[in-house]
Design a protein that fits this description.
This protein is α/β, with parallel strands linked by helices. It has 24 helices and 18 strands. The strands form five sheets. It has a five-stranded parallel beta sheet with strand order 4-7-10-3-11, with helices on both faces. Strands 15-16-17-14-18 form a five-stranded parallel beta sheet. It has a four-stranded mixed beta sheet with strand order 5-6-9-8. Helix 16 (about 470-485) links the parallel strand 15 and strand 16. Helix 2 (about 65-80) packs across helix 3, helix 7 packs antiparallel against helix 9 (about 260-280) and helix 18 crosses helix 19. It is globular and about 95 Å long. The protein starts with a helix and ends with a helix.
Length: about 650
């Protein structure tokens, strides 16, 4: 960049009147088409105005980088070219493209397809055939007078086959390469030899650098794209984005809170930068991948409170500590990593807020919305754990009575913390969770109870003999119709024990990304969806075209559907799935269920022995203590067993319940 800047300045200076100012680089200027003068990109950045009624994921703060990339993207697309955006995960490639597509103009229609390791050429072809209109028997294209833009995200995720090719990539190349008579279309999969031409289609693609499950894309495809590199956001750009949002949000608070928006963003940014440097991903910690979405989730959590529920600056700081912990601390799996994070927060509190707090003052802080009625309930701090225990027990009893399903849970401190985290995600639009823990740790039971507390339907598939892809798709149809057409808030609880085929995760990856599974609805079901959406679009002043009605359906699915995944970290399958299906990490908030503490073991044992008569309380307490000590003793022996022999014995809460 420096060399080209020097070269370009030399070229411009050789022409009279074309010299560039010396204070900035050539990358900071563009030519004004009206006057012919050099103007800075900074002067072209649109101003941002915070609107509290706009969902957080629709808030886009323009920066110099995003303005520059969007300008080049628009110029290339208007010129009829294909564009590939490269850059590290989390730099905003998808946001920039989605922002451009929303403003592309009426001459364009668009669809998004996200790839994963399991994306097949057959599924990709079905996606294209579903979205394009059949003009003739051997010709596909967009609606009359339009150009179709396909946005292919995570282009380099599909796995290579045995011979090194990537069939989905080759299919894209075949569609794009229109200069050859045998390209520029797809072969019909039913009629041998029938080649369907595809016209008036452009592609925008995005991918991160190879590595971590991503492959090197063949140059035979890349040669068709104009490449735009999206650099990592500078600290100044990140601060501009999130400070603009927090300052707008704080306007409704009392004046003493207004000056906190800057330090809150600076503190979040410092933790985000340092955790990327210090806590690097390893084979056993493959989910230690932090990107800009995580920083955004911290700010999104702060935006859930109402001014009347925050008493003073210290409570606002506790809220910030809570939200940062939910995003960063909850995915850490070792005591050493959590201690590092706690000490980092102590340092940040001292440097940015002049607070000399200890870790004990914020580690156990909880904010949730289940402490009050009726709905919608405020997001407030949980200060009385005994009251929280009582409220949750009442919810569990109501669950048992109303749904006729037993909900026998012991709400010790960790259980209250986990159910608060799940409830927090169900409160957020597009909030999804990845709950990681061994069997019996309460992931599914707590999710069902949290769904009941949030007055949402909890949807689970039921495995039967012969259950396969077709049956799974039928269940997903009912799920999507319930969330989209019927407009019912729904929680989709899915466990790794229900993964009969890895293609199940491909479908879930698509739901997390775009709210749909390509080609899952037949024509009759699609017509039913469009019929249900037509009056809704009309009432909201949206032109009831086929694309607008289907986009409204997908928007309702994404707003109403919350995916909660309950996975076990045991074995290599977990890390492989995180690597092959990136949305499991990027679109979900991770909550790692650690081993039960002594308090939990004691509480569960007392609950189990509640109906048994003992000669006296001393013997009962002794039996409870014996059960706890046996379980903790086996846990310690298992760790020693693993250290000395590299063999693993897993001690789960299920083992304790059987004891």
């Amino acid at each position: 960049m420096v060399k080209f800047n020097t070269f370009a300045r030399g070229v411009f200076s050789s022409f009279q009147g074309l010299g560039l100012p010396d204070d900035l680089t050539i990358y900071d200027y563009k030519v004004d088409p009206k006057t012919g003068d050099f103007v800075t990109w900074e002067s072209l950045v649109d101003p941002f105005t915070y609107a509290k009624d706009v969902p957080f994921f629709n808030l886009i703060v323009p920066t110099i980088d995003s303005t520059r990339v969007k300008f080049i993207l628009r110029a290339q697309m208007d010129g009829g070219y294909h564009v590939l955006l490269g850059g590290n995960s989390g730099v905003g490639k998808t946001v920039i493209v989605q922002d451009y597509l929303g403003q592309a103009g009426e001459q364009y229609v668009h669809q998004t397809k996200s790839c994963s390791a399991q994306t097949s050429s057959r599924a990709l072809q079905a996606f294209f055939e579903e979205k394009l209109e059949k003009i003739r028997k051997n010709l596909l294209g967009p609606p009359s007078g339009k150009t179709f833009i396909f946005f292919v995200d995570d282009l380099n995720m599909p796995l290579k086959e045995f011979y090194g090719a990537q069939p989905p990539i080759e299919l894209l190349r075949q569609i794009i390469n229109v200069k050859d008579d045998r390209n520029g279309g797809i072969y019909d999969l039913k009629k041998i030899g029938l080649f369907k031409k595809i016209q008036k289609v452009q592609f925008i693609a995005a991918n991160a650098p190879p590595g971590g499950g991503r492959s090197v894309v063949t140059p035979r495809l890349l040669r068709h794209f104009h490449l735009i590199n999206c650099p990592d956001l500078s600290n100044a750009s990140m601060r501009t984005i999130f400070a603009s949002i927090t300052q707008g949000f704080m306007q409704d608070f009392r004046p003493e809170f207004h000056e906190m928006s800057g330090p809150i963003v600076d503190a979040s940014l410092e933790i985000y930068i340092d955790i990327q440097k210090e806590l690097l991903p390893t084979p056993s910690k493959s989910h230690y991948t932090f990107n800009l979405r995580d920083l955004a989730k911290v700010i999104q959590g702060i935006l859930m409170v109402e001014p009347k529920n925050i008493a003073d600056a210290d409570e606002m700081l506790l809220l910030w500590c809570h939200e940062a912990s939910r995003v960063f601390r909850d995915r850490l799996i070792s005591v050493g990593d959590r201690d590092w994070y706690d000490s980092k927060v102590v340092t940040v509190l001292s440097s940015h807020f002049s607070r000399t707090w200890q870790a004990s003052q914020f580690v156990d802080v909880l904010f949730s919305d289940f402490m009050a009625q009726p709905k919608p309930t405020p997001y407030v701090q949980v200060t009385d754990m005994e009251k929280a225990n009582k409220v949750l027990k009442e919810y569990a009893e109501d669950y048992t009575l109303n749904l006729n399903k037993p909900m026998d849970l012991v709400f010790f401190k960790d259980a209250i913390g986990h159910i608060s985290r799940i409830a927090r995600l169900l409160r957020q639009p597009r909030g999804n969770a990845l709950l990681v823990g061994v069997g019996g740790s309460g992931r599914q039971s707590l999710t069902r109870l949290a769904s009941y507390m949030a007055e949402m339907k909890c949807f689970q598939i039921e495995l039967t003999r012969g259950y396969g892809v077709n049956e799974f798709h039928e269940d997903l149809k009912r799920l999507l119709m319930q969330a989209g057409a019927e407009n019912k808030p729904t929680v989709f609880l899915f466990s790794d024990t229900q993964i009969i085929k890895e293609s199940f995760l491909e479908d879930i990856n698509n739901i997390l990304n775009s709210g749909e599974v390509p080609n899952i609805f037949d024509q009759v079901e699609t017509d039913q969806i469009l019929m249900a959406m037509r009056p809704i679009c009309t009432s909201e002043g949206i032109n009831p075209t086929k694309q607008n009605m289907y986009e409204k359906f997908l928007s309702r699915v994404q707003s109403n559907l919350h995916v909660v995944l309950a996975f076990s970290p045991v074995g290599s399958a977990f890390t492989g799935r995180l690597r092959n299906f990136p949305s499991l990490v990027t679109c979900c908030t991770i909550d790692w269920f650690t081993e039960w503490p002594a308090e939990a073991l004691r509480g569960v044992a007392q609950e189990a022995f509640a109906d048994i008569e003992f000669p006296n309380d001393t013997i009962k307490d002794g039996v409870v203590k014996l059960c706890r000590d046996i379980h903790q003793g086996v846990e310690k022996a298992s760790l020693q067993y693993a250290d000395e022999l590299r063999r693993y014995n897993y001690v789960t809460p299920t083992s304790y319940l059987e004891l």
